[in-house]
Automatic annotation (TrEMBL):
Residues 1-31 form the signal peptide. This is Cistern family PEP-CTERM protein. It comes from Calothrix parietina FACHB-288. NCBIfam families: cyano_PEP (TIGR04155), PEP-cistern (NF033947), PEP_CTERM (TIGR02595). Keywords: Signal. The keyword ATP-binding does not apply. Coiled coil: none annotated. The keyword Membrane does not apply.
């Protein structure tokens, strides 16, 4: 049964006990990585960075769970200013349907023990990250705006946490993983990190992400134009998520 977005937001945070039960009934599937770093786009090129591990599992016949491992990898080796300290205070991403023939419903979000307890959804609390525009979904610590606010409860350099999402879909865990990975690889979907308390440049940064293959980020910036041409008319088929009641 469809519900309003406001009801979805109110029911989006699962309890810790439900999260443990979900893990017990999940079957592991394939995974992929995204790195957020200046080579994909950065407003300040401070060198703030993060690594995201996308781990999918079959939750039920028509549900797939995504465990998203988040690590702040800021280490003084990236960007023009080689930041060694930065606080990751938000992740934003596009969440359109991955396959027009197999709709994907965004069911619920679980922040786990992380500080990323606020869920932003376009049309309710639209996550905006100038100059990259609006995103469909984002997570952050509690704050008044996604792009700005108090950096408390974010991830400092070297810290790690895990959050999870539950999807209603006719796709299998492997199929959903493939579809999402290809969307990021072809840049049909965007993902970005918001950093504050950076000890380089202007003191904060907004950084885009890309797929990691064989330990290296891809595509290289010089191949982005070719990837977009190969993508063709995929954007014509993109539809918004169907928001369904959380279990």
């Amino acid at each position: 049964m469809k519900i309003t977005l406001s009801t979805f937001i109110a029911s989006s945070a699962l309890s810790a006990s439900m999260a443990v039960a979900a893990m017990a009934t999940s079957a592991p599937a394939q995974a992929f990585q995204i790195t957020i770093e200046p080579k994909f786009g950065s407003t300040e090129k401070t060198g703030a960075s993060a690594l995201l591990d996308f781990n999918f599992s079959q939750f039920a016949d028509n549900q797939v769970k995504l465990n998203l491992d988040i690590t702040n990898t800021t280490d003084g080796t990236k960007g023009d200013f080689k930041a060694t300290e930065a606080t990751l205070v938000g992740l934003a991403f596009d969440a359109d349907n991955f396959d027009p023939g197999a709709p994907v419903g965004f069911n619920s979000y679980n922040p786990g023990t992380s500080g990323f307890t606020k869920l932003w959804v376009k049309g309710i609390d639209t996550p905006s990250l100038p100059p990259y525009g609006d995103f469909d979904v984002a997570i952050s610590p509690p704050r008044n705006t996604f792009a700005g606010g108090n950096p408390q409860d974010g991830l400092t350099a070297g810290q790690f946490t895990t959050v999870s999402f539950l999807f209603d879909t006719s796709l299998s865990a492997d199929e959903l993983s493939d579809a999402l990975e290809n969307g990021f690889l072809n840049q049909a979907f965007r993902i970005a990190g918001r950093f504050q308390q950076v000890n380089a440049g202007g003191g904060s940064d907004k950084v885009l992400g890309g797929i990691v293959k064989g330990g290296e980020p891809v595509p290289e910036p010089t191949t982005i134009a070719a990837s977009l041409l190969a993508l063709g008319g995929l954007g014509l088929f993109k539809k918004k998520f169907q928001h369904k009641q959380a279990v």
